[in-house]
Design a protein that fits this description.
- By secondary structure, the protein is α+β, with helices and mostly antiparallel strands.
- It is 36% helix and 28% strand.
- It has an 8-stranded mixed beta sheet. Strands 2-1-7-4-5 form a 5-stranded mixed beta sheet.
- Helix 3 packs across helix 4, helix 5 runs antiparallel to helix 6 and helix 8 crosses helix 16.
- The protein binds one RNA strand through strand 9, helix 6, strand 12, strand 14 and strand 15.
Amino acid sequence: MEQVKVSLKDGVEKVYQKGITLLEIAENISRKLGKEALAAKVDGVIKDLSSKVDKDCNVQFLTFEDEEGRKVFWHSSSHVMAQAVKRLFPETKLAIGPAIDEGFYYDFDRDESFTPSDLEKIEQEMAKIIAEDYAFCRKNVSKEEAIEELNKINEPYKVELVEALPEGAPISFYQQGEFKDLCAGPHIPSTGRIKAFKLTSLAGAYWRGDEHNKMLQRIYGISFPKKSMLDEYLTRIEEAKKRDHRKLGKELDLFSIHEEGPGFPFFHPKGMIIWNLLTDFWRKEHSKRGYQEIKTPIILNEELWRRSGHWDHYKENMYFTKIDDMNYAVKPMNCPGGILMYKTDSRSYRDLPIRLGELGLVHRHELSGVLHGLMRVRCFTQDDAHIFMMPSQIEDEIIGVIDLVDYFYQIFGFEYNVELSTRPENSMGSDELWDQATAALQGALDKKGMSYKINEGDGAFYGPKIDFHLKDSLGRTWQCGTIQLDFQMPERFDLSYIGADGEKHRPVMIHRVIFGSIERFIGILIEHYAGAFPVWLAPVQARILPISEKHMDYAYKVKKQLEEAGIRVEVDERNEKIGYKVRDAQMKKIPYMLVVGDKEANENTVSVRTREKGDVGQKPVETFIDEVLTLASKFN
RNA sequence: GCUGAUGUGGCUCAGUGGUAGAGCAGCGCACUCGUAAUGCGCAGGCCGCCGGUUCAAAUCCGGCCAUCAGCUCCA
């Protein structure tokens, strides 16, 4: 009998008989691996465990611990769901059913819509299929066979998918029990491996993600090889929901959004404290770096927006109005205003770069379905700046902005992803200038040694951009900072500067934001800190808790002392027990609770309880003030 | 925008054709209290909006508005 050499991880080599299956190898290595292995990577290609080994190779077994293993597991789970749906609703047509980052979905086409009680039935049927423990069996077919088979079982979406495949591409079917589906695989050995699962939501999704196509019904689910893992997952989701900025914004009285103005947030006094701290910090840091601040109007003549290209490329997102029969637009961006400002004087090469910052309020018409708390709104304040410079200054300026973004984000403890977005379809200018601009951004990123993802076709209509993305509590990412390099606007507005040669030259512009939108940034901050803001940002830094009504006078005396030192403080004057007041302050996530009673009043002290550590003991008022000021002054 | 779900006091939610309910928050009174909820009482609601069915609608039907989830991840 012929033998094959199999190298495993850690360089271990084993010899087996040719034709042995991967599952047999896993079982041979250990019983545990035999039970936990879901698929295996053979010379870098992921395969079913039922595949046979007929030549020397490298094998790496994949379990639920591996991302690729989880994907296989979830993909198989989606097949189980499809099988259940076909059993219960045989008229349903199947579209696609992939694994996603967390779980899986399957898109179905059925005239009637699925209801939540249908989901329960599907779950029950899935449980049966799992208990029946069917093996996933692969069968390779030719393109013609595949189309014939799919026509026979009447799956038009699958036929469309196969027809789009290139000639000679490998095509396979997988079958478990009576259910057969077109699928590249691989799959887990059998349905019984799925020990816990839950169908999580129901949503519409266009066939092939194109809104011109039919809308299908998508069912999302998640599954695990252990029941305890599902429970952990569900508690994690619950915890994440508690951090939701929309919930915390209400509870902590930071902002509100009303039916009277969908997508137009109201900032409450406590929310404005955070806002102003952020913008104070922003102003200080920008002025240190040679930025000047300007302010441009919200409404400007429509003609300006035609000239800037917004009319042609951004009209759908703009609001328009009329003044004395003349057409005006509400600004969706600050750049044209900044450009008009640039043109108010003749500029010399000695003046460049000119860095004009603006906390500009912009309005954009977003589709109603995409509005989301402070994260996606219809009016927001950009911490914008436009840098006008000579071509030779491009790289230094871009690097300066990258450094500034990094400096800001590390202060809040954010990790971020960087993306480079290239020329979109509906854009203006020559390919040559676009290539030049894209290369400049890329060059700066490479010089900084930053890793980034390329986002084809996602640039602004006037230039490519570097985007900085931050994560929300549920792991969704939001674009915050961006740096856009623009050769188009200077051209359109005929911007110039006088060079050393005495001739007119064309400057280049950078559009950039650091926070992105103050609204979105505050939303991200709320979720990042779960509402427990660091002392310097906390809207209320300390709350004084008098033991009883007798201690009210002393409480107000301490309040005055703290206020004079610049500490944001309030007194809980309700006639309640101390435990009640502590609990309330704790839930409002106030960093310091100052308990004051007879002892403190006599000794001119406060008993300090911190949000994180609890009771930390009694100390003189002055000592407490010094400690807080030291902490809070770190950033301003 | 599209698909689905949801909309009842400041907040969280119960109420499925017959006079709108609870808990928390608020206000009042009593207690004067030492580190995560003291007790009693009071007040608070065009049941998202408009229309229809009905003797009667928070409840059933239609339209609209808003909110939530998804709509990129390609068998």
